[in-house]
Write a structure and sequence with these properties.
Blueprint (H helix, E strand, L loop, with lengths): L9 H9 L10 E2 L10 E2 L8 E2 L2 H15 L19 H8 L6 E3 L3 H12 L8 E6 L3 H13 L7 E5 L2 H11 L3 E7 L11 H10 L3 E5 L18 E4 L14 E4 L1 H4 L43 H17 L1 H19 L7 E3 L12 E5 L3 H10 L2 E2 L1 E3 L3 E4 L8 H13 L6
Parallel strand pairs: 2-13, 5-6, 5-7, 7-8, 8-9
Antiparallel strand pairs: 1-3, 4-10, 9-10, 11-12, 12-15, 14-15
Helix pairs in contact: 1-12, 2-9, 3-9, 4-5, 6-7, 10-12
The structure holds pyridoxal-5'-phosphate.
Pyridoxal-5'-phosphate binds next to α4 and α5.
């Protein structure tokens, strides 16, 4: 039992919502409509977070500045475009447990992974391997294999391991001396499992490996302390739990001790240059990287794609990740309570149930007629996602989901038994 006093009735779910101190934040988001015309039960925040209503007016404001000021928008207005990416830095750093100068919002996740691997994957003939955890998100795997090939290595230099601390540590003990880079997911995209990054960073460093992490499903979801955990580098996208919108600007983190080192090799572009001399153009032929994560920027950022992030991260600042995590544990715990009542012939919960090993998302293996179950959910106005062949991923998000959403989902799932058995 994850919720004290748990009771499976709808009234109980409604009572939990009434007692929830942040229940009003739901009203600040647009909830997509189901085919019935009613708001859908949106449990897809792990894939695309919802749109905060205030986004529209901030985008309108940037368009107005463009219309009224043209190029002067780079230096005028309340948030001049020249330093626009800096407006989200501190909020991002709070979510990451990082120093602000360790954080930069730029590009998208896979691009950032390539840029940081240009610096942090420095293979030698005796130490060329990269260790990743499985299941691996395809884009990460493609990026990593292409980096191996770029350096003249083949797939034999790719080591994989299931996403479990003991197994990763064992593999590091065995093979650590030939591993150049360990790259793991903070929260696994398919299973929803949270890894103990502090412990794994120590294990990787003991073997002399660089330790990088993918935070696509971790940022805005679970507490992080990248600086104290001594993580070397990290990348993330902002359209999942951060609600930055489709194709939102992603981000990169570089530990302070690396950020101070201007001599680190990297792929340069004018936005990584010192901002005080950046616009001197041809008068500054030599690239002098900025200190900190900003020194890994390449191009000037898309303002219209950063604006939604400013709105959304303000909400995270207001509520605080501690409050969100608190509700998230209860909300997802409540979902577990409801699902535990279903027979194990029908359902397997792939996500660990221990609080420290799960975030918002639960991954459910549907053992009987998975496609029919998915269809029944979708017809009843539930938005969650289905991964072939039989995994349903559902993420109650504490910023905008209610206990009643979770109750509705469980109710529909329970009623969607296989008719042909
Ligand atoms: C969502 C996600 C991505 C997305 O990559 P983009 O480059 O932003 O398209 C990459 N890796 C993981 C693990 C993800 O969950």
């Amino acid at each position: 039992m994850f919720t004290p006093g748990f009771d499976p009735s709808q009234e109980y779910a409604q009572a939990l919502d009434r007692a929830d101190p942040i229940s009003t934040y739901r009203d600040l988001f647009h909830l997509p409509k189901a085919s019935t015309g009613k708001p859908c039960v949106y449990l897809c925040g792990h894939s695309l977070g919802l749109m905060p209503k205030a986004v529209r007016s901030l985008i309108d404001e940037e368009l107005r500045i463009w219309a009224d000021l043209g190029v002067e928008g780079h230096f005028q207005g309340t948030a001049p475009w020249y330093r626009y990416h800096e407006t989200v830095r501190e909020s991002g750093a709070r979510l990451l447990g990082a120093r602000p100068d360790e954080v930069v919002f730029m590009n998208s996740l896979t691009v950032n992974l390539h840029l940081l691997m240009a610096t942090f994957y420095r293979p030698t003939t005796s130490r060329s391997a990269i260790l990743i955890d499985e299941p691996t998100f395809p884009s990460d795997r493609y990026a990593i294999v292409s980096q191996l090939q770029h350096h003249g290595f083949d797939r034999t230099s790719l080591l994989t391991c299931s996403a479990a601390e003991d197994e990763i540590e064992e593999l590091l003990d065995r093979e650590g001396r030939r591993i150049a880079l360990v790259f793991l997911s903070g929260v696994n995209f398919l299973t929803g499992r949270v890894l103990d990054l502090a412990r794994l960073a120590k294990a990787a460093h003991r073997q002399g490996c660089v330790f990088g992490v993918d935070l696509a499903h971790a940022i805005g979801n679970v507490p992080l302390a990248l600086h104290d955990w001594n993580i070397d580098f990290a990348v993330w996208c902002s359209y999942k739990y951060l609600n930055g919108g489709p194709g939102a600007v992603g981000g990169a983190y570089v530990h302070y001790r690396h950020g101070q080192d201007r001599s680190l090799p990297r792929f340069a572009g004018w936005w990584g240059n010192d901002p005080d001399i950046r616009f001197r153009m041809q008068l500054e032929p030599d690239f002098i990287p900025q200190i900190g994560a900003d020194g890994w920027q390449v191009s000037n950022p898309p303002i219209l794609s950063l604006a939604p992030l400013r709105v959304s991260l303000r909400l995270f600042d207001e509520v605080s990740l501690t409050t969100l995590r608190n509700k998230s544990l209860r909300l997802t715990g409540y979902l577990l309570d409801l699902l535990m009542r279903l027979s194990s012939d029908r359902l397997e919960i792939l996500t660990p149930v221990a609080a420290e090993q799960r975030g918002c998302q639960l991954s459910l293996r549907i053992k009987q007629c998975p496609r029919e179950v998915q269809l029944a959910l979708s017809n009843a106005g539930v938005s969650c996602d289905f991964r072939e062949p039989d995994v349903l991923r559902v993420a109650p998000v504490p910023l905008y989901n209610s206990f009643e959403d979770v109750w509705n989902f469980a109710q529909i799932l329970t009623g969607s038994a296989c008719t042909n058995l």
